[in-house]
């Protein structure tokens, strides 16, 4: 992006402007025009600024361009810079990138840092000139050496990425600090991020808060959002939900989608504000319409439940789909569930399996389990593939998958029969209160299958299964009890 010309030029020129609210404004403006018409370049430039900014009158960029050009042809660098900008943007004149390049070059050769930066930008992007990143870098350096913050920031990005230069994190940090210390908000945000993440500097939450805060006060929306996150979590600063909410609101008011989603969650759950699902839906929708997948998913949940909005499962599905297509894991999983059960869409096992696979590929255990279950259900399904997916979910502690994997080892479906493995996976699921796993585990202990015969353990697991609602556990428990010595029975009951 090309830099805007300065509002007033340097401090010395500022004093020559007519003050629009002064009693002598009309006389001062007339005097300025007289000096400009006599050919005084500084007066021509000042008159151009007055006309461009509309100081005391309606803005007239065409007349501003006229007076800039008269000053520019006399070699007045600030006028050359401003005239180049008007040609680049098509304000008061037709867009003419060749003339913009000409005037930026003239001003840059005289040491005008803003023109040097804009010339660098044109060369960097190939806008109006053949792309030449080496030449762009040279102009950035010349402007940066004069303290021009935007060029300093661009140099920092170059050294950070190694674009056109050898990557040098130390030099990147040096230029970043210089730009940040001059109040350049993107540089302050970038420096804060480094302290926040411990990138090329030691992690320092307090420094991150400091630099986010400086950029946030300049209405840098991403800094406002990150500052809110830090106050929300008490990271680098004392936790303060009120301040967090303030910064979320400021960022959201500027259209920051992440902040809008965060405000939605606060209203939905009553965190720092009164619970208000309708207001949550407003903020979710604003973020969702910007394409934020988390907000699309959250809005889908409200529509699905009719919470704060009219229930609309078709619309919920549409928002889930938008989030899912962007890789949102829970949206992919929930979309799979909807196709599996026919909620908001026509049932479609193929679509269900496709969405479960996408979530499963991200390592989500419930989705891995569902892929296994659907593959197992298909007529042409592969028992070994189903077992593989159950195994992936089971290793993450998914109780249903652990039980299903136990069953497969128990009967040799999709895997080699292995009673020890079956016993292991039943035990994992049973410890998570899976009732059928508890029953099967009790039977295995009673039979000495997959583990040494142990009536005490058998009694304990069958008792738990019965308490969890497995009806036929009671009959097995009676038979086990009949085979137990009184001391063993007493020991077993002590385990309950």
Rg result: 35 Å
Helix content: 55-70%
The pLDDT mean sits at 93
Poorly predicted tracts of residues? 7-16
Number of helices: 28
Span between N and C termini?
72 Å
Please tally the β strands and state the result.
0
Q: Shape, please?
A: elongated
Class computed from helices, strands and strand pairing: mainly alpha
Largest sheet: none
What does this structure look like?
- By secondary structure, this protein is mostly helical.
- Helix content is 69%, strand content 0%.
- The protein is built from 28 helices and no strands.
- Helix 13 (221-233) packs antiparallel against helix 14 and helix 26 packs across helix 28 (486-494).
Key traits:
elongated, 69% helix, mainly alpha, 0% strand, 28 helices, 496 residues, single chain
List the helices and strands and how they pair.
Elements: H1 11-14, H2 25-37, H3 41-53, H4 61-72, H5 77-89, H6 97-109, H7 113-125, H8 133-145, H9 149-161, H10 169-181, H11 185-197, H12 205-216, H13 221-233, H14 241-253, H15 257-269, H16 277-288, H17 293-305, H18 313-325, H19 329-341, H20 349-360, H21 365-377, H22 383-395, H23 399-411, H24 419-430, H25 435-447, H26 455-467, H27 473-482, H28 486-494
Give a brief rundown of this model.
The chain is mainly α and 496 residues long.
């Amino acid at each position: 992006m090309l830099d805007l010309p300065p509002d007033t030029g340097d401090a010395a020129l500022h004093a020559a402007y007519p003050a629009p609210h002064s009693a002598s404004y009309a006389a001062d403006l007339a005097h300025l025009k007289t000096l400009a018409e006599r050919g005084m370049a500084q007066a021509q430039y000042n008159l151009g600024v007055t006309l461009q900014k509309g100081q005391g009158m309606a803005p007239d960029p065409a007349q501003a361009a006229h007076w800039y050009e008269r000053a520019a042809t006399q070699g007045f660098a600030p006028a050359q810079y401003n005239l180049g900008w008007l040609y680049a943007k098509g304000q008061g004149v037709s867009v003419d990138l060749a003339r913009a390049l000409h005037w930026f070059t003239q001003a840059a050769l005289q040491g005008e840092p803003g023109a040097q930066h804009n010339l660098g930008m044109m060369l960097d992007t190939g806008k109006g000139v053949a792309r030449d990143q080496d030449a762009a870098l040279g102009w950035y350096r010349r402007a940066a050496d004069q303290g021009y913050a935007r060029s300093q920031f661009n140099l920092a990005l170059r050294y950070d990425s190694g674009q056109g230069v050898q990557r040098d994190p130390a030099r990147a940090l040096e230029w970043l600090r210089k730009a940040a210390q001059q109040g350049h908000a993107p540089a302050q945000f970038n420096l804060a991020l480094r302290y926040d993440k411990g990138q090329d500097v030691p992690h320092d939450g307090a420094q991150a808060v400091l630099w986010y805060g400086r950029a946030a006060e300049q209405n840098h929306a991403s800094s406002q959002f990150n500052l809110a996150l830090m106050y929300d979590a008490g990271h680098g600063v004392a936790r303060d939900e009120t301040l967090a909410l303030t910064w979320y609101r400021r960022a959201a008011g500027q259209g920051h989608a992440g902040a809008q989603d965060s405000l939605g969650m606060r209203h939905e759950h009553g965190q720092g504000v009164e619970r208000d699902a309708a207001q949550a839906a407003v903020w979710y929708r604003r973020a969702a319409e910007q394409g934020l997948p988390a907000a699309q998913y959250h809005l889908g949940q409200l529509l699905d439940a009719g919470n704060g909005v009219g229930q609309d499962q078709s619309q919920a599905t549409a928002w889930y789909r938008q989030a899912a297509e962007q890789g949102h894991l829970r949206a992919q999983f929930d979309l799979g569930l909807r196709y599996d059960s026919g909620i908001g869409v026509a049932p479609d096992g193929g679509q269900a399996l496709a969405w479960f696979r996408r979530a499963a590929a991200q390592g989500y255990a419930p989705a891995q389990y569902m892929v296994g279950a659907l593959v197992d259900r298909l007529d042409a399904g592969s028992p070994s593939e189903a077992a593989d997916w159950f195994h992936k979910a089971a290793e993450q502690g998914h109780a249903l998958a652990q039980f299903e994997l136990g069953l497969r080892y128990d009967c040799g479906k999709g895997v080699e029969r292995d009673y020890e493995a079956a016993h292991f996976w039943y035990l994992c699921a049973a410890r998570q209160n899976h009732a059928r796993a508890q029953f099967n585990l009790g039977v295995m202990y009673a039979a000495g299958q997959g583990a040494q015969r142990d009536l005490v353990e058998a009694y304990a697991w069958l008792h738990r299964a019965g308490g969890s609602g497995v009806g036929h556990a009671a009959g097995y428990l009676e038979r086990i009890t009949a085979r137990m010595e009184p001391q063993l029975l007493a020991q077993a009951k002590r385990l309950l």
